[in-house]
């Protein structure tokens, strides 16, 4: 053999030996890799955890980095497949990469009815829908008509991996269709090392930079939105409770301290507030309060407009706030779907002047903003001021020119107050006695020493119980009865305290106490208080009844008739004799001066002529005449105050309802059909017994919908009778809220904040039902900066 041939053979033998050595080294490495993988499998996350995390969108798998590091070494498992077998598999599936792209982004899990069944000799097996829920990686391949593992097919078909030969080809290329062993095979594949590797690869596959940035921005927006919600909740709480937002300094304000309290233990809110302090500024507070108030008012307007027949009435009253600004309170009255009258406060509005035209323009502007048609205005209730009730330039006259069907009713509570004032002034004795009570109440409040003396004496005489002496309300005559009773029930204590005060105080205080003591020692003063209590008691009860939100005009007139009758029954000698006897008994008990008739100057002869002037024989007959005068004044005032044109027109409408006879007055209202109303009233009267409008409302309220639909016109008539307010007490209640909100310490509050806080404070139940997410959405949608900071809510 030539030298060249020998060298060639030696090279071949060396190459073959080297090849055998490399092959043995590969087998040893594969065996070591398999052993290491088995050791580390105990620290790898469970299959269900891997699958759930593999299905998460981009950017949500950062928390898996620690777990992935524990399983990172499993990437080289089962690497002992020969290169020849690998090449052969790739030649058989030359278009695998293309098929991997056709799998899509998520497993295909269609309706199980489209998946082929497995037909056996004695039965037919179907793919179960619950398997999709048990094994989320199942993917139905339309091309192969079988089930694949979405993640294994995605991984092994898209990459030239050496582990492809170790994977089950049924779940990668061919498609699994043996439903009889489905659960067994699915579980085995799910626990295989190849499946785990594919899942981990899915988790750790690189995400595009733009996707990662978007996820980071989205997380920041979600954090900002959570913190914004906490700010909105703080604003809502402060507005609901009517507390001041800011203090003398910003950091000492209620809102600032509330946010600090909420941030305690909340690192996220603390950090966010430090970097976004402008979102807690007074301007932002005002904007959030305005959003809440507008939402509440719009909900009320929507409820008004939700009725089949829209009918509503206005209540307006005005007052001055603590800074002297004129505030007009506007309320609305309507009848809900259950035929229950509702009165709702709409807001406080500052006007430049209180003329009738200016206030009427304001009322029209409010109705326009709330989309409440003036054509459906059916009532208006105000006080008796000239700018409101004037028949030429008053608000009611101006609105009636635009809508003649808007009946004006003078507030019933104001009418009763005017009647009470006239009654008390009609008797000189009653007037003077009430004036003394007012002076005593003022003296009680001004002198702390007298207050302590009176309390000690009253406690000792009444077993530790006493009632403070209060001055009379300067404007509300119907609430004076409580102060009068307080003096009558503690009359002896008042005398003792005044006597002690007159002897141990300064000259000015002693003189005042001595003068009051001398006045209360008169028996006539005691009689005047007894008469005042009797005269104002019935009127106070009537006034309280008329302030109810559900009070109707017909109910008010019925209550007025009862009070009027009660006052008339008191005009008897027996009634006054009882009062006089009680006063005499108390005067004797307290050792007062006897009840005497005051000195009466003899009238000139030109008034009496030759006849002698009339004189009362005794004090009892003299004061009886004054008592009768007060009762007669009450009777005439009742007739004058409650014989209004609006009341009379509503009485005509109620007579139509009660009698069933349709009159021409119904023609004035476009919501009525005379023929239908006549037929429905006849049916209603034939089926039910009723005596008032409230009885009809109760009957209709209890009807089933089918029967109620028969009496649509009757229900419309009932709504018209219920919608007109009996009093303007709802506006007066808003003034109480105004006193609580705008105080001396909060006198610089702007009108916008005042109105918003007033609406939130008055409508606390509406505020509690608000969807704060919608408030946040409205706040964010204002400008692009907020959209960038907080993002937009996903539908």
Describe the structure in brief.
The chain has about 800 residues and is an alpha/beta fold. The protein contains 37 helices and nine strands. Strands 7-6-5-8-9 form a five-stranded mixed beta sheet, with helices on both faces.
What's the helix count? 37
What is the percent of helical residues? 55-70%
Describe the strand arrangement of the main beta sheet, using strand numbers: 7-6-5-8-9
Report the strand count. Answer: 9
Helix/strand structural class:
alpha/beta
Average pLDDT value? 84
The N- and C-terminal alpha carbons lie at a distance of: 88 Å
Shape: elongated
Give a quick account of the main beta sheet: strands, pairing sense, barrel closure.
Answer: 5 strands, mixed
* Radius of gyration over all CA atoms, rounded: 45 Å
Low-confidence stretches: 1-9, 33-98
- Share of residues in strands: 5-15%
Which descriptors would you attach to this protein?
single chain; 795 residues; alpha/beta; five-stranded mixed β-sheet; two-stranded antiparallel sheet; 37 helices; disordered N terminus
Describe this structure in words.
Helices cover 60% and strands 6% of the residues. The protein has 795 residues and is of the alpha/beta class. The strands form 3 sheets. The protein has a 5-stranded mixed β-sheet with strand order 7-6-5-8-9, with helices on both faces. The protein has a two-stranded antiparallel ribbon with strand order 1-2. Strand 6 (326-335) and strand 7 (341-350) form a beta hairpin. Helix 10 (209-241) crosses helix 11 and helix 13 packs across helix 34 (751-762).
């Amino acid at each position: 053999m030539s030298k060249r041939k020998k060298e060639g053979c030696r090279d071949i033998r060396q190459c073959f030996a080297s090849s055998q050595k490399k092959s043995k080294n590969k087998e040893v490495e594969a065996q070591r890799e398999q052993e290491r993988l088995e050791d580390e499998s105990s620290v790898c996350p469970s299959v269900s955890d891997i699958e759930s995390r593999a299905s998460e969108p981009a950017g949500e798998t950062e928390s898996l980095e620690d777990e992935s590091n524990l399983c990172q070494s499993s990437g080289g498992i089962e690497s002992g497949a020969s290169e020849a077998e690998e090449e052969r598999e790739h030649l058989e599936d030359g278009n695998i990469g293309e098929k991997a792209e056709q799998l899509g982004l998520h497993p295909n899990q269609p309706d199980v009815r489209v998946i082929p069944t497995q037909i056996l000799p004695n039965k037919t097996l179907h793919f179960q829908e619950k398997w999709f829920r048990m094994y989320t990686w199942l993917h139905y391949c339309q091309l192969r008509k079988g089930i694949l593992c979405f993640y294994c097919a995605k991984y092994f078909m898209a990459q030239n991996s050496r582990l492809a030969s170790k994977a089950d080809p049924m779940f990668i290329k061919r498609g699994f269709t043996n439903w009889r062993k489905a659960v067994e095979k699915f579980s085995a594949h799910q626990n295989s090392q190849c499946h785990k590797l594919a899942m981990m690869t899915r988790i750790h596959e690189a995400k595009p930079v733009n996707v990662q940035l978007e996820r980071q921005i989205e997380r920041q927006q979600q954090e900002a939105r959570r913190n914004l919600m906490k700010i909105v909740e703080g604003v809502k709480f402060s507005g609901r409770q009517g507390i001041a937002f800011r203090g003398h300094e910003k950091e000492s304000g209620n809102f600032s301290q509330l946010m600090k309290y909420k941030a305690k233990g909340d690192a996220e809110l603390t950090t966010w507030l430090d970097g976004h302090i402008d979102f807690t500024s007074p301007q932002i507070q005002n904007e959030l309060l305005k959003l809440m108030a507008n939402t509440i008012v719009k909900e009320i307007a929507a409820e008004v407009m939700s009725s089949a027949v829209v009918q509503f009435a206005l209540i307006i009253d005005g007052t001055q706030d603590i800074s002297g600004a004129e505030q007009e309170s506007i309320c609305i009255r309507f009848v809900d779907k259950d035929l229950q009258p509702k009165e709702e406060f709409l807001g406080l509005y500052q006007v430049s002047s209180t003329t009738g035209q200016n206030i009427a323009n304001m009322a029209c502007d409010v109705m326009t903003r709330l989309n409440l048609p003036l054509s459906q205005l059916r009532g208006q209730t105000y006080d008796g001021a000239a700018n409101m009730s004037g028949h030429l330039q008053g608000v009611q006259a101006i609105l009636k020119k635009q809508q003649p069907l808007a009946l004006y009713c003078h507030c019933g509570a104001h009418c009763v107050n005017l009647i009470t004032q006239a009654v008390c002034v009609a008797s000189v004795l009653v007037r003077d006695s009430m004036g003394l009570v007012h002076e005593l109440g003022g003296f009680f409040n001004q002198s702390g020493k007298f207050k302590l003396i009176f309390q000690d004496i009253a406690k000792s005489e009444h077993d530790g119980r006493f009632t403070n002496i209060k001055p009379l309300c300067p404007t509300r005559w119907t609430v004076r009865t409580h102060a009068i009773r307080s003096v009558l029930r503690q009359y002896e204590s008042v005398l003792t305290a005044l006597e002690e005060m007159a002897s141990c105080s300064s000259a000015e205080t002693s003189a005042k106490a001595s003068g009051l003591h001398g006045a209360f020692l008169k028996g006539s003063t005691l009689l005047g208080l007894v008469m005042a209590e009797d005269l104002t008691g019935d009127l106070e009860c009537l006034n309280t009844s008329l302030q109810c939100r559900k009070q109707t005009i017909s109910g008010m007139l019925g209550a007025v008739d009862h009070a009027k009758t009660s006052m008339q029954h008191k005009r008897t000698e027996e009634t006054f004799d009882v009062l006089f006897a009680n006063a005499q008994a108390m005067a004797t008990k307290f050792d007062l001066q006897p009840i005497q008739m005051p000195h009466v100057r003899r009238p000139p002869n030109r008034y009496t002529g030759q006849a002698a002037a009339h004189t009362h024989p005794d004090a009892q007959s003299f004061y009886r005449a004054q008592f009768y005068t007060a009762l007669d004044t009450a009777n005439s005032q009742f007739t004058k105050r409650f014989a209004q044109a609006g009341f009379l027109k509503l009485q005509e409408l109620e007579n139509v309802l009660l009698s069933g006879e349709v009159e021409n007055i119904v023609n004035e209202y476009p919501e009525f059909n005379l023929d239908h109303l006549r037929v429905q009233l006849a049916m209603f009267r034939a089926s039910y017994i009723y005596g008032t409008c409230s009885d009809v409302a109760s009957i209709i309220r209890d009807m089933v919908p089918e029967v109620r639909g028969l009496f649509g016109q009757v229900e419309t008539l009932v709504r018209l009778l219920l919608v007109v307010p009996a009093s303007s007490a709802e506006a007066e209640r808003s003034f109480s809220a105004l006193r609580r909100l705008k105080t001396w310490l909060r006198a610089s509050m702007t009108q916008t904040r005042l109105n918003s806080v007033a609406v939130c404070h008055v409508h606390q139940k509406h505020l509690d039902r608000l969807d704060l997410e919608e408030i946040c959405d409205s706040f964010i949608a204002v400008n692009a900066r907020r959209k960038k900071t907080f993002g937009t809510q996903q539908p």
